[in-house]
Amino acid sequence: MKTQIVLFTLLFACTFTPAQTKYKPTWESIDSRPIAPWFQDAKFGIFIHWGPYSVPAWSPKGTYAEWYQYWLQTKSLFGNGKFTGTEVYDHHVETYGHHYSYYNFGKDFTARDFKADEWAKLFEDAGAKYMVITTKHHDGFCLWPSEEANKAWGFPWNAKDVGAKRDLLKELEIAVKNTKVKFGAYYSLYEWFNPLWLKDREQYALEHMHPQFKDLVTNYKPDVVWTDGEWDMEPEKWHSKELLTWLYNESPVAQTVVNNDRWGKGSRFNHGGYFSTEYQEGLDGSHPWEECRGIGFSFGYNINEDAEDYSSARTLIYMLLNVVSKGGNLLLDIGPDGYGNIPPIMQDRLLTMGEWLKVNGEAIYGTRMWNRSCQWSKEGRKDWKPEGTHYLPADFILKQTIDPEPGYAVREVFFTRKLNAIYAIVPQWPKSELVIRDMELPSSAKVTLLGTDINIDYVRKGKDIILKIPCLAPHELPCDYAYTYKIEL
Q1: Structural fold of domain 15-363
Q2: What is the pLDDT of residues 161-174, one digit of tens each?
Q3: I want to staple 233 with a disulfide (CB 3.0 to 4.6 A). Which of 52, 237, 326, 402 is the partner?
Q4: What are the residue positions of the site described as May be important for catalysis (predicted)?
Q5: What is the crossing angle of helices 210-220 and 240-249, to 10°?
């Protein structure tokens, strides 16, 4: 235990070294740049997918609605389920007609009801410490007045010049930066049908993507840069290392920016910044990481998704616990409609998470991994996963906690820790006692229940600690869904 405390002290004593040293365009140099501690402390962020695809907002369940243009123009489809491939094309022709181009959705993307201050307040009330918005998705449409976009496409293809006729990104940047929430910018490296991309990919990267990326970073100064759409070309052809050295050495956010690992084929989980998973269970915590997924299945708003397709508040809270206990962050996505309205069911889920975090945030924010992420029940196989799905559905976490399949174990306790405390978070209220196996505590250790002034009695039994759980009426519980025992060392 003393050794663990010393190591944890050293971890917290390590401060972020800003970009005072000139970084070189090599992975060795780039990967040596530390990730700002605020990101590892944040634990919970909100992802926003919003663009012309939010107007049709249509794709079969189990697929990404923000890929509408790609599904439409390639007559293909991919996701969880079986598809003919022409579902989006058939819907589009029936709804809009053969000659209605995807690019017409630019003028239909009016953002009529968008109020940046209301969005920012929702993010703050949800307990999020950062947000990331799709400034440009794979369709190439920009939420800011990008001359590069107009030049590349030969017609207005940004929110300032068509549709909304507003710099939506600047409005949101200002609103978010007036809160304590960090501002993040998603940026797709590639564009599916950009003429230059189709003609010469490396030329596209150097003559279109690089200057557009620099314009975005220079004028909006994001705290987080979240790149995507990197997989069709190696980092060398994207010239990603050169772009990252500009970001770290010369950009206006050189000393503060945090970025992910999507910089070219083979870079994920290897190079560039924190590691980013998508609809997965998570990583081992040996490197800063983040899991992204939607409240519904689709990242972009999908009118086909019903209430049953949205994760419950309980599911989302357990998902957060699973990720944070493994040293990661959860980036939870919402998809506003084309008018800028965030669906009420998404607002409800975020606000419920915010209420839970008001009670239990101490066990989430600023924590690190303990010597294990959770305690499994003694009997049964671990890590239940559904079969036949490409993307891991959210309800896997219910099967691993409160609704196990026959023969499978459950996660009885999630753990996080700070310098002077271990947090044991249980997804079910224990009946009379909670046994935590293989835990050594100093004789002075004190146990309390977060959200109350209740001291929890405990006894040692061999290598185990047994917490004596008080009998509380439902209205006396400090919160819903999961309960935190703080073990002060």
Answers
A1: TIM Barrel (3.20.20)
A2: 999 999 999 999 99
A3: 237
A4: 292
A5: 20
